Amino acid sequence: MYRSVLVFRVTTKEVNGKDAQLLDRLVFSILTTLSRPRRSLVVNVRGPADVQAAFAFAEQTGVRVIIKNSGHDSLGRSSGPNTLAIRTTTLKNLTYIPEFVPEGCNHVAPRPAAAVGAGVIFQESYPFAEAHNISLPGGACPTVSPGGGYTLGGGHGMMVNNYGLGADRALQFKIVTPTGEFLTANECQNTDLWFALRGGGGGTFGVVLETVQLALPRNPVQMIQIQDFDNTDENTRAYMKIVLEHTKEWALQGWGGFVQLNEFQYINAIISPEEAIEAMKPLTDWAQTVDATIIQKTHDSYVTYWQEFLFPVDNPTGLPFAVASRLIPADNFETDEKREELLNATLEAAAGHDAWFGFATTPFKYGANKNTSATPAWRNALWHAIVEDFWNFDTTSGQQQQILQNLSSSIDAYRKITPGSGAYLNEADINEPNFSESFWGSNYDRLVSIKDKYDPNHLLDCWRPRNANQAGLMEKESWGTPLELLWENICHCDSDIVRLHCRAMCPDIQKEWNEISSLRSGAKTTSIDGFTLSMPALIAVARYCIPTAISEDAGVKERVEASADFVVRMSEPGAKGSMYGVNTGVGASDRTALQRVILKNLTSGILPIETAGNDNYLSSHHDSSLLLPESWSRGAMLLRLNTLLRGHSGCRWIVIERLHALLANNIIPSPPLRQSISASGDLAPLGYIASALTDEVVVPVWSGKGTDRKRTTSIEARKAHGIESIIYGPKEALAIVNGTGPSCAVGALALHDANILALTAQLTTAMAIEALNGSPETYDPFIHDIARPHPGQIEVAVNGRHLLKGSTFARMHDESDPAQKLRQDRYGLRTAPQWIGPHLEELTSARATIEIEMNSTTDNPIIDLENERNLGGGNFQGTSIALVMEKVRIGLQHLGKLVHAQFVELTSPHMNRGLPPDLAAWEPSLDFGVKTMDVATAAYLSELSFLGNTVTNHVQNAEQHNQAVNSLALISARYTFHAIQVLYMLYSNLIWALCQALDLRAMISIFFKRLESEIKASFVNIGLSESAHAALTKHIYDQARVRFGETSQMDSSTRFTELLRPLVTDVLDFLAKEGEGVSSTKFDALEWRTTLASQLGKIYREVRSQYYENGSAEGMMGNTVHLYRYVRKDLGVPIRKGGDIDTEGVDVQLSRIYRAFERGGIIEPVLKCFKQ
Ligand SMILES: Cc1cc2nc3c(=O)[nH]c(=O)nc-3n(C[C@H](O)[C@H](O)[C@H](O)COP(=O)(O)OP(=O)(O)OC[C@H]3O[C@@H](n4cnc5c(N)ncnc54)[C@H](O)[C@@H]3O)c2cc1C
């Protein structure tokens, strides 16, 4: 669920009391915010004064502080509910210091180093090191901070074996301690602090602003990767046996890396390629026998290796995963018996978990370092062995607890065989037994005394597991259970990067769809209890007719019955006080209406009437357009049931059971589409639903499923299924009809569809970049992560980079290529992250609103059982849904405008970078291509723009002015659905056109290869030197590609003569300058043009025919390929060939794409493109 994070800056001025009023206001607003459940405030640190101010503030007010950087900490130390977070992600300084001498250490020889701000992440420090021809090795994850928790807690990585832990390489720290002192800690001053900061753990001794790290030479790196072998028990054992036998020997040779049960990846920066091959021979020999994939390679540097192999994809940080780990000493690798024991422990530890790693990232070869405080167990260890499990967005806290417990127990297998060893505190079991010993070993006592010295008032204490009854570094007070804090860390992420990943929309949609699929396949079931209904369950029940059960939890029934009893007591003669709708009438007629009359008065909408025979009148309207679609009605029933189960509404259990029986037997009331103003709830549609249970009002229903489904009456359908009628007791009919179920259900369904469209928008934009040979620069992380870090914008860019990965169509701008005329893409491509991103944020927030509404009590009056009160309020007013729907609809219009912009760019020969006009597949004079589709696109967009108007500013007074303000939520949601339908049409057109454009582009790429060789051949016998020949070929080929774009509107019969016409001058100019020895007899310009033009025309037509026969753009596309493949193969939409060749109409093909949207078939392939 979305929780807001307020970000502000405390300035020294305010805290020093020079502006007392301002401080008062500030303190008041902070304390008010923090007093609300699970709120946090954040101070963005720009310098020491901000930290001093934050500590002073904490001291004065008693507010707890935490230090937050990237937010990756798996022990939850960088989070805490109701805290003031001191956030250091803003500290981005990176400076290379070729001759660094720690301050005050005049006797120390200068060394190359780099000053690294606390907020710098590996993704930034690695390219920086490359640019300065040095190495600043670190961890794997691009978004962990070398200047923050990584180094402060130890810091392991692939180069650690030779060069030491991150902490070993830290030469100096700048730190503000909790007492407000701004200190320098190095080997000459504040040496106790220097020791503590080198491995003692982040968030404990103060806020580090900058770390100076030793810079290493940038050496080439030998790497080996082995993977893709059959995972049989026999293979795993054989492979692990070899690995265990050689682990120590490899460590001594300088190797570092990681081992998994099915992959091996090691690097070494201190040996030659030949030595590397020799060292790994035992493993490669075996790997060949099982047909494994073996890659052995020399990289220029650690960073080039890291980019290609370790993190070739954007790292999905913030994923909810938990770890447990153990440092495995060399002793465990020594003998056959020990290795067998270790292998068995490994298999036991890894069993049943999502991942196991043997990280050979310990400082074994580097050796001891008495000036660091990380556990000495590191020094003798060959492996940092780790197990990991992921959990889902809806994993309950009980399940999380279980996962953590399982991880902890699995590591017991290692604990048993490694007595006296320890664990890496940055990647440790949250339930680590005897953690002070494990994380710090013999350094612990000294660290505690340093902590007491620099943090005497314990401002920086953090949580510890409740059951760990020890005083020390990770203690003082438990702020909550570890789980709560872990959850905070994962979901309440304050850092820009992690917040993005936590709240990113795309993974949410993927999970939502997986959940819907599991419910549809029967792998999962769903039940309702009033509080935990999820979007996927609602979609599955409403749209895919999945059954749902009522929770069997006894508490659910108890609270429902207690609320019904309350109503009965209120309706008895002599009851104290009154309850609206029980011992009063309703609405403005509150003295006249009777409870049982309510329903009769609600059925006043317009319904279709069956007419017998054909009276030769042809209606202009579809009868079905008068009715609420069945899925909407199903969703409304489910939400009504869910709300009644909350025990605030006073309905008897039997009413809930009967209403549930209707849904379970697929008896779905069919109310009129219009009539609701969504103020006193959606009275009319809910009136039809409530009436379906009585014998007093007959309402139309759908009954049955699939092909057995028919329209009948409520009484008939109930009779057929043996469901008895209900005579509603006091308040009961009111409890059903007063509520937002219909608008909320329609809103949820619309939001689900809008989310898929938001993904489609990102996907089609990437495809448009490919089809137009656009630039991936649009998605450069600097533009988004650093320069303008709006979470939605960052997410679009992350997705864009992934979608374009591997694409040969998308190209960075190349100044030397004259065919790339535009320096930057047009707005329809280049500003897509900024255009779509804000809508992702809106959709994410819309989802939170809808999820709250789904699990709310929305009738009136409602019962507060605990305090025996009935309260008259207005929870049925649907404004929250109405506004969400308005915003979603505006978003859909914006996506539609983007479709139009991209469509026009694709089809216009002035903008489409050499594609044919209107994407004509045949000769342009004989083929109008997608001209009519272009017109249709404009028509759709116009309609969509009209639908983008707001509904909610058309509110009228209603019901004798009683409902003077009314939300119009259902109307707004209905128009959002109209907008979705029109946007489906726009995307059908765009996707069709994109596939066509990509094919044409692929065909042109093939032709360009031939073009180059033909040009080269045309200059063979004219007497040029080899270099002049190559230079002329390149120049003419470059210019020919420019001319190819300029002549795209011509038929192939004349195009190439025209293409070459100005190039003749280029050739002659070149020969005049460079063509020594070329006489006019050898080069006849006219002849050259005529022959080459005719040849090129022939080749072009040949390439085109061959491509139309069996060509495909797949091999040149990025991760967008899955949608292209789906359209071409699954939907059977072939490339349009033009002329008289095509047998099927385009309309039929567009309809198939539209239907894939409408029926959800497109969701899987769209999601597949985003899967990382
Ligand atoms: C996907 C992933 C991959 C990882 N890969 C590696 C790896 O390869 N090698 C490795 O060693 N570790 C790795 N880690 C673990 C990582 O080192 C820890 O999570 C570490 O605590 C992160 O530090 P941070 O500052 O980035 O994060 P945060 O969670 O923001 O901070 C971690 C701790 O440091 C404290 N802290 C942060 N900044 C400061 C500061 N400026 N001053 C004082 N205290 C501070 C925080 O209060 C907290 O206690 C990985 C973690 C993840 C999630």
TrEMBL record:
Q: Name one GO cellular component term.
A: cytoplasm
Matches recorded under InterPro entries: Aromatic_Lyase, BBE, FAD-bd_PCMH, FAD-bd_PCMH-like_sf, FAD-bd_PCMH_sub2, Fumarase/histidase_N, L-Aspartase-like, Oxid_FAD_bind_N
Pfam families noted in UniProt: BBE, FAD_binding_4, Lyase_aromatic
Q: Which domain of life is it from?
A: Eukaryota
UniProt keywords, alphabetically: Lyase
Q: Which GO terms describe its biological process?
A: L-phenylalanine catabolic process
Which positions fall inside the FAD-binding PCMH-type domain? 35-218
Gene Ontology molecular function terms on file: ammonia-lyase activity; FAD binding; oxidoreductase activity
Q: What protein family is recorded?
A: Belongs to the PAL/histidase family.
Q: Which PANTHER family did the record assign?
A: HISTIDINE AMMONIA-LYASE (PTHR10362)
| Name under which the protein is recorded | FAD-binding PCMH-type domain-containing protein
> Which lineage is the organism of this entry classified under, starting from the top rank?
Eukaryota, Fungi, Dikarya, Basidiomycota, Agaricomycotina
